[in-house]
Amino acid sequence: MLTSTIAPAPAATAAAPAPVRPSYRPFAVSVAGIRRLSDTFTRVTFTGPDLHDFGTVGLDQRVKVILPLPEVGISPLPDDESWYQAWRLLPDTHRNPIRTYTVRAVRPAAREIDIDFVAHGEAGPASRWVTHAAIGDELTIVGPNALGENPHSGVEWRPGDARSVLLAGDETAAPAICAILAALPRDARGCAFIEVPHEADAMDTAAPDGVQVTWLARAKAAGQHGTALEAAVRDWTTRSVSMAETGPALPVGRLADVDIEHDILWEVPEETHRGADLYAWLAGEAGVIKTLRRFLVSETGIDRRQVAFMGYWRAGHAEAN
Ligand SMILES: Cc1cc2nc3c(=O)[nH]c(=O)nc-3n(C[C@H](O)[C@H](O)[C@H](O)COP(=O)(O)OP(=O)(O)OC[C@H]3O[C@@H](n4cnc5c(N)ncnc54)[C@H](O)[C@@H]3O)c2cc1C
Questions:
Q1: Which CATH number describes the domain made up of 164-313?
Q2: pTM higher than 0.70, yes or no?
Q3: CA–CA separation, 159 vs 319, rounded Å?
Q4: How far apart are CA 73 and CA 76, in angstroms?
Q5: For the chain, which residues score pLDDT lower than 50?
Q6: 125 Cα–ligand 1 center, Å
Q7: How close is the Cα of 1 to the center of ligand 1, in Å?
Q8: What residue segments make up the domains of the chain, in order of their start?
């Protein structure tokens, strides 16, 4: 045991506690590059004076994009964790819309990050913004602080030591799936299904050889949103996953309903249990993900502690803040 003869410092001279460094904080940015990758995807490169401090974990790292308002621009917010409270207190006319996106790439040395936006018309402020975006446009991105206490906040990908992976999602999940595929260990095994509007939306991925990537074009399948994805996941699961391998940890039928008209579908394991055969990650339109959740958990019996289900958006509903 260590002992010390040094008397404790009197309280009056005790050092002030170090300021808490926020894990997630606003970064002022402007548009440095715009690449229309396809009719669906636009890659926007942002630059900002503090982006060398942006967290670099990657994977499905989510950020909040604070979008400009006409006549107002971006209302000033504190650059620490009190930003959200300050945003809520803004008058309606000055409260900027906030939407959730994935960091597609981070280059701290160049003070740049990329986000791949899906353009889906003029219906939402984010889609409208990216459709008309121009070099020099300013906005704010709330994201991970490399100097913060927990620079990993906002990442849901937690495969543990699962022996294989299943990734499935629509175009809004494509940036996250591509970033995850690029980061997988080179001996990883499994598959990814990505449903996009058109064949030309398919992108190169840096997936390991053992992970098969399938892009599903909605236009080609002539189906509704999610039809091709559901069929592909059902087919793969039926062929690849047996009940004996997964074993239902929760009795089939115990799956609580999620009312996606009012609640967000967001069910992610804190930690995947060890020795799992499969870890599955599913994100996209909430109704589609809810159907796949029912199939994987209730019908197939896959342990919920091995699956992340995330409703990234809900048809007919604007993102709630
Ligand atoms: C963790 C997370 C990560 C995400 N990452 C990305 C990403 O990297 N890239 C990306 O493009 N999106 C991503 N999304 C989805 C994105 O946040 C939503 O699509 C968001 O609703 C878009 O905002 P908006 O202002 O364009 O539309 P909103 O104002 O939210 O909605 C307006 C209308 O448009 C509809 N709508 C919203 N999104 C779509 C869509 N994609 N296609 C068709 N109709 C739509 C809504 O149902 C609503 O009727 C992510 C979401 C989450 C939760």
A1: 3.40.50.80
A2: yes
A3: 27
A4: 9
A5: 1-13, 243-244, 246-253
A6: 10
A7: 57
A8: 24-144, 164-313
